Amino acid sequence: MGSLIAKWFTRLRVHLLQYRYRNRPYREYYAAVMRVRTAYDPKFAVGGRWEEIGRLQFDFLRARGLQPTHTLLDFGCGSLRGGLHFIRYLEPGHYTGIDISPEALAAGRQFLAQAGLEDRKPVLRLSHGLTFDDFSSQRFDFILAQSVLTHMPRQDIETLFAHVHKVMHPATVFYATFFDGGTRTYTSADRTNFHYPFPLLRDLGAKYSLRITRDPDYPHPRKQQMMAIRLLIDQQ
Ligand SMILES: C[S@@+](CC[C@H](N)C(=O)[O-])C[C@H]1O[C@@H](n2cnc3c(N)ncnc32)[C@H](O)[C@@H]1O
Fold first, then answer.
1. Model-level pTM?
2. Atom 26 of ligand 1 has which residue's CA nearest to it?
3. Cβ < 6 Å from ligand 1: which residues?
4. What CATH number is attached to the domain comprising 49?
């Protein structure tokens, strides 16, 4: 019962944040949502189903060719639901996780220590923007955004698409999940989930020389869809 009340109180606090942050950039609002949700439960904060969705991400990237020697950028890594699997598998230093929520990253570091994986030397960083300017010349073989574009307004996705090439090389594949809105763009009542038509995302990518295709083979329990984002390489 205590936990039910705590959960209800967390939902109320998230609801009230909408008003407090109504004139602030969406990212600030969502970081505040993460702060409140992480204080309640860092596994619940990233959507729960911890084992299932953590494993799903890992199995998917393995099936798409991820090897221990590859480098991975986990964009919006949260409290490392998928991250722990990748960190265990990849060579030391080959995993980088970034997130806008310091609380989620702190929880991730605790899970990392509990799992005895600190010697895998993952890089976990607070993200301050969407322009990747703090990565200098670093490029990743794979990029993953699991349940992140589902929490981003269209303008932020456009900024991401305009800059993500800075951390991609010609063979990089950026896998990102999204909620398929069919023909509509819409958001949940509490403004925490966004749904987009796939053609909108595909055309937005094309504007920034990205080729975006659907990957139909992603059995997400909440019906998030997967897309693969590649650099459009000049064929001449
Ligand atoms: C639903 S959680 C998923 C976390 C992780 N990918 C997983 O599967 O467990 C969404 C995460 O994306 C982060 N996030 C949202 N917008 C972001 C942005 N613009 N840049 C980086 N992280 C972001 C949130 O802070 C949150 O940790």
1. 0.96
2. 78
3. 27, 30, 34, 46-47, 53, 76-78, 81-82, 98-101, 104, 127, 130, 146-148, 151-152, 156
4. 3.40.50.150
Joined together, the tokens standing for residue 212 give 């975006």
The per-residue pLDDT for range 22-57, each reduced to its tens digit, is: 899 999 999 999 999 999 999 999 999 999 999 999
Residue to mutate, 26, 44, 46, ligand 1, most ligand atoms under 8 Å from C-beta: 46
Which backbone phi and psi does 132 adopt, to 5 degrees? Answer: 55, 25
Asked whether residue 33 is assigned to any structural domain, the reply reads no
User: Within a domain: residue 185?
Assistant: yes
Q: Which amino acid, residue 177?
A: T
What's the structural domain count of the chain? 1
Alpha-carbon gap, residue 146 to 177, rounded angstroms: 5
CA 197/CA 189 separation, integer angstroms:
18
Q: Is residue 10 part of a domain?
A: no
- Ligand 1 center to residue 104 CA distance, Å? 9
Domain that holds residue 175: 45-231
Closest alpha carbon to 121 in 98, 83, 92, 78: 92
The pLDDT tens digits of the residues spanning 140-192 come to 999 999 999 999 999 999 999 999 999 999 999 999 999 999 888 888 777 77
pLDDT attached to residue 2: 61
Asked, for residue 108, whether it belongs to a domain, the answer is: yes
Between the CA of 147 and the centroid of ligand 1 the distance, in Å, is 7
Smallest CA-to-CA distance from 69 within 118, 124, 142, 136 is with: 142
